[in-house]
Write a structure and sequence with these properties.
By secondary structure, the protein is α/β, with parallel strands linked by helices. The chain is built from 13 helices and nine strands. Helix 4 packs parallel to helix 5 (103-115), helix 8 crosses helix 11 and helix 8 (170-199) crosses helix 13. It is globular and about 65 Å long. The N and C termini lie far apart (76 Å).
């Protein structure tokens, strides 16, 4: 199949918190979706959305016009490709990887797909589980022009923004840069709210100023780290994700690796990576990444106690 109009059967490999809703949106749009996940619970949840459960990834891929993968790491993706997915697929199958992985791994995966006679696309996403459910994700696409065009109709079912960023690996490059901005800005917003608390500002007062002035950003106006000002933010439901702290720590780790390999003189990204690694390790891994504000509060309290002891 070489035309986007003919892409009617999708194999979806990786049906977790993101993949399951994404696959369900494709079913709702009229695609036949064959799904596979290592975890039976994820497969059952996807089946409830109309996804046809397959006994293996290879069995799903063998019948598909387009293969979408949503896996934890580049190593998982490359293992899956080499372990049977590429060999099982029909010639010239469109392979769209929506995982968030290292740029080098994305390019290696694309090379493997091309060598096997297929058409690769890297298309990591932004928007979290809310965007996956609502079909409002942003896809950052790395692919040749023809492959990007063929993937677009499928991606537009699952997202409201599809940006072709360049050749293979460019989607992952855009994702790592975007999430570095997000991680740094969430820490800055959280620090500002904690500082405001200690200066006697209400959350609403600070929000009303910053949301309509130069402090405005997504971390403030969509994913606000304090309850109240943005009723839909995870802070209003005890920091249920959303976008998990473990995933932010992972993505910032990818950013740090990219910074090192490119020799970029970046300071805020590595600092944010260290803060989120500590946040994830100290119990924030499964909570929303905006919960980092609680870590800042705790550290601020400890600092005040130490200051008081020193003054005494």
């Amino acid at each position: 199949m070489t035309t986007s109009d003919a892409l009617e059967t999708v194999a979806f490999i990786g049906l977790g918190n993101m993949g399951g809703p994404m696959a369900g949106n494709l079913v709702a749009a009229g695609y036949r979706v064959l799904g596979y996940d290592l975890f039976p619970a994820a497969l059952d949840a996807a089946a409830a959305r109309g996804v046809e459960a397959s006994q293996s990834g290879e069995a799903a891929v063998a019948q598909a016009d387009v293969v979408i993968t949503m896996l934890p790491s580049g190593a998982h993706l490359i293992d899956a490709y080499q372990g049977g997915l590429l060999a099982a697929a029909r010639p010239a199958t469109l392979f769209v990887d929506c995982s968030t992985i290292d740029v080098h791994d994305a390019r290696q995966a694309a090379e493997l797909a091309r060598a096997a006679g297929h058409r690769p696309v890297d298309a990591p996403v932004s928007g979290g589980t809310v965007g996956a459910e609502a079909g409002t994700l942003t896809f950052m696409v790395g692919a040749d022009d023809a492959e990007a065009a063929d993937a677009r109709p499928v991606l537009e079912i699952m997202g409201k923004n599809v940006v072709h960023c360049g050749a293979s690996g460019a989607g992952q490059a855009a994702k790592v840069c975007n999430n570095m901005i997000l991680g740094v800005s969430m820490i800055a917003v959280s620090e500002a709210f904690v500082l405001g608390e200690r200066l006697g500002l209400t959350h609403q007062a600070l929000y009303d100023v910053a949301a309509h002035s130069s402090g405005q950003c997504w971390a403030l106006t969509t994913n606000c780290p304090v309850p109240g000002p943005v009723p839909t933010s995870p802070a209003n439901r005890d920091y249920q994700p959303g976008f998990m702290g473990a995933l932010m720590a992972k993505d910032l780790g990818l950013a740090v690796d990219a910074i090192a390999t490119t020799g970029t003189a970046a300071r805020m990204g590595p600092l944010a990576a260290a803060i989120y690694r500590s946040f994830a390790d100290d119990g924030g891994a499964q909570t929303d990444f905006s919960g980092v504000i609680n870590t800042i509060r705790e550290a601020s309290g400890a600092a005040s106690e130490n200051d008081g002891a020193e003054e005494a």
